[in-house]
Amino acid sequence: MQKKAFNIAIDGPAGAGKSTIAKMVAKKLGFIYVDTGAMYRAIALYMLRQGVDRTDEAAVSEAVKGAKITIRYQDGAQQVLLNGEDVSGLIRTEEVGNTASATSVYPAVRAHLLALQRELAASADVLMDGRDIGTCILPDADAKIFLTASARVRAMRRYKELLEKGEACNLEEIEQDIMERDARDMNREIAPLKQAADALLVDSSEMTIEQVVQAIIDAAVSKGLPAGRVQEGC
Ligand code: DC
Predict the structure, then answer these.
(1) How far apart, in whole angstroms, are the C-alpha atoms of residue 6 and residue 121?
(2) How many whole angstroms from 37 Cα to the centroid of ligand 1?
(3) Residue 187 exposure: Cα atoms within 13 Å on the Cβ side
(4) What is the whole-number distance in angstroms between the Cα of residue 105 and the centre of ligand 1?
(5) Ligand 1 pocket, 43 CB below 6 A?
């Protein structure tokens, strides 16, 4: 009998460092990293391009049928394709992120991505990050982590990132934006952001990246991942 894939679910709010951490853990474990936020962002980009009003549920639900989302990997990095076009570089803007947060509240949008996410998890050892992975998408995931940090710390990290890119920004505005996004992601009716009952809570506010990576690896090993899977020095 074929061995079941080992699945690690990481959920948490915007800016908690999920993707940075998840990429590092996936590399150390030889897992595939699946960034589900990128899928919601690709749908948001489609809505922006089509000029669909993000507050109009019927219009978004109809339009989403025209957005075929697929994933491929190049040199270990996930690329997200929108109707065959690689949009990975185009979805990392604040506008697309905010639109994704708004359009992801609709059941039709979530249903559109469910099968793809479950198929990916069934076919390989994956580390999947998002908002509802441990609660809805992979309720039987082998290990579940809820990764968070205070709004202030998350805003500060984002602020530094933007400054490094040479972009003008305001810390208060970023923090306000983060709190609004949290409220929307946590209070929506379908698949809200919340910690699964069996998830390990990791608050990274006072932790280094290496400490968070280690905490997740330890959690996976405690849930049955053979310690020999952990590759040192990468
Ligand atoms: O993780 P991110 O910032 O790339 O996600 C963008 C938005 O997509 C986020 O604000 C909410 C939505 N999202 C979701 O609803 N469910 C997921 N599993 C992942 C993201």
Answers:
(1) 8
(2) 4
(3) 7
(4) 10
(5) no
